[in-house]
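Justification of resources, computational component.

The compute hours requested in this renewal are based largely on the per-chain cost of generating structure records like the one below. Each record pairs the submitted sequence with a full structure-token output. That output is archived, and it is also reused by downstream analysis tasks.
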Amino acid sequence: MRQDILDVVSERAGAFIRLRAVAALRDGFIMTTPFTIVGSLFLLLANLPIPGYADFVTGVFGDTFLRSLNSVANATFSILGLIVLIGITSIYVSREGCDAHMAVLLALSTFIILIPPDFNTPKGEHLTNIMTKEWVGTNGMVTAILVAFFTSYIFCYCIRKRWVISLPSSVPRNIVRAFDGIIPATILFTTAAIVSGLCHAFGATTFPALIFKMIQIPLQGISDSIGGATVIAILQSVLFWFGIHGPNLTNGVVSPLLLANAMDNQALIDAGVSLIGNPDAKTFTIQINTIFIKAGGCGATMGLLIASFITAKSRQIKTITRIATIPGIFNINEPLTFGIPIMFNPYLLAPYILAPLSNLFITWAAISTGFMSPLGALMVPWTTPQILSGFLLDGWHGSVVQILNITASTLIYLPFLRIQDRECLEEEMEEGEEFEDETLV
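The structure output for this chain reads:
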């Protein structure tokens, strides 16, 4: 019965992961990685958590140096909506066997039609024929995702149904490809124009602003609640225990919201507002999930690794521990996950869920009490070792929180690992006795 349940869950989750839209959303969002990581490096260089650093750099290199560093971060984080739009469209259409280049261009134009063409400055000036960064960044993330899916579907549908302008076979292929986009472009642009007009006529608003207010803000609110964060942490571990890559499955939906939370915090930082104790600051951001909750990898297995060093006596777990140590330092836990193994292992299910939850509650408490600051746009690679990554994100306060997380997860894993280790040791002793009996015979 248990195996039947496991098979059903694995099959259903696997089918969900294989859905074109889910796969494109996940992989399209992954394409933002070089922009967020490299942008974060420049942001870190401009804002190293060292007292007096900014004054020292300004005194040596002048004001333009820090401005140049921040401009790189601004040019990457501020257009993440566009990057997601391009990534999802290109991946979705490519996997359908259609022309991704044309589809991306159509998606960009459709998206821009929906963006407001004017802007009111803080001084009350009304500027027209201008495209601000407000809606091409994380504020327009959900709109970008919707436009990417709509464009991909319409374009591929038209190509498959041969809703294209037929040209003689003698016409060069590049010209044929260009004409293939005319009918999809007509459908997409007309639809976007109608939607834009309706939003303006009946709501005095724009489509991105409407989506932001009705969908993105509520979803961000759920993701930033302790209940929403708890569900996310549990899902990641439970799915991985069932043999499904939990973070991969949840990241496509969750990561855009958590990234938007981080960018909202960055907007406060850029405005010169402190995040500590600020009710407008978001607590659960993408770095909290990646760097703090999943210390050592999904399931907070840094604690399991340390617990193995403390208590392991069986040859199997001691060998796996030695193999998994170096990867584990860099938050790569596959050797540990598949070596012990953790998946479908009843001894380790409870700590595999409880350890990341303890990390979540400790980190949340640290931010709520003001010990640690909510995090802005600064990112560090997920392979950055613990303690160092916390320092880069929030100075020594972040390192202390990570030390507390690792300590708590180690204490949680210890009693369960002792049971697992005792089981392995008994099996090894039985195998040794059988080998001796066979040798005597």
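The radius of gyration is 26 Å. The CA atoms of residues 109 and 217 lie 25 Å apart.
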